[in-house]
Amino acid sequence: MAKKIGPEENYWSPFQQDIMKMVQRHPITYIRDIMMTPTQYKAAVTTAWDRISRDIHMPQKLCKQEWTSIKFRYAKLNNMIRYGKVTEEIIQMHPKTSKYLDGSLDFMDAYIYEITDEEIPTCIHKRFNKMFGVTNKQVVTKEMVQALLKKRTQEEEPNDEMGKIHVQNLMNIVENAVERSLREMTSADEQPEHRTAGLENDRDDNAQEGASNWQ
């Protein structure tokens, strides 16, 4: 049984909220000041993090780690939208990512696109790629289908019992189709390996049979 997503995952923790507010007050932590020398810039960043750590009463290392995680995840989601891997609508409706588009990180929008996919840690790529079914085959996940159908329910379907039943039936049909498609893709991926293995076995059997005929 799939793990249920608790409602708290839709919201920022108090610590995360404090980090974002304090970082916004200290732009030097996310904007490179080209008027400073490298030494001056490094000193200014250190001073800013000292103040952030002191104001929210948390170790500086923990503050920087939390902000780095938030920043890279936000960059990953923005890059997915920008490159057409997933729509903003789906990210907003997904219970684990909706908070990233709630406005808390709007102050980063002018700078977030400077972060390339190469800079984002592999673990973050894997997490969100798996979450949204982003692969070379462009798999559509159940969550993506549900998000789109729920929006359709809210905007297009009649707000009565029959309308709700109709949409629920539609969701069930599409979910079953997605799952069937994923099974077929998995089967197709495995099939060439089976065929190759079979050919190798046939070659071994033929070789053994030929050897026995010569004996």
A few lines on this structure:
With 215 residues, the protein is mostly helical. The chain has 7 helices and no strands. It has helices at 14-25, 38-56, 60-82, 88-93, 122-131, 142-155, 161-214.
Number of discrete helical segments: 7
The first-to-last residue Cα distance is: 58 Å
What percent of residues adopt helix (DSSP H or I)?
55-70%
When the domains are counted, the total is: 2
The radius of gyration is 26 Å
On the 0 to 100 scale, the average pLDDT is 77
Domain MADF: 18-113
Protein name: MADF domain-containing protein
Biased composition (Basic and acidic residues): 191-206
Organism: Helicoverpa armigera (Cotton bollworm)
How would you sum up this structure, described in words?
It is elongated and about 60 Å long. The protein has 7 helices and no strands. The protein is an all-alpha fold and 215 residues long. It has helices at 14-25, 38-56, 60-82, 88-93, 122-131, 142-155, 161-214. The protein folds into 2 domains: 12-134, no CATH class; 135-215, no CATH class.
Please write out the topology.
Layout: H1 14-25, H2 38-56, H3 60-82, H4 88-93, H5 122-131, H6 142-155, H7 161-214
Helix pairs in contact: 1-3, 6-7
What descriptors fit this protein?
64% helix, mainly alpha, 215 residues, 2 domains
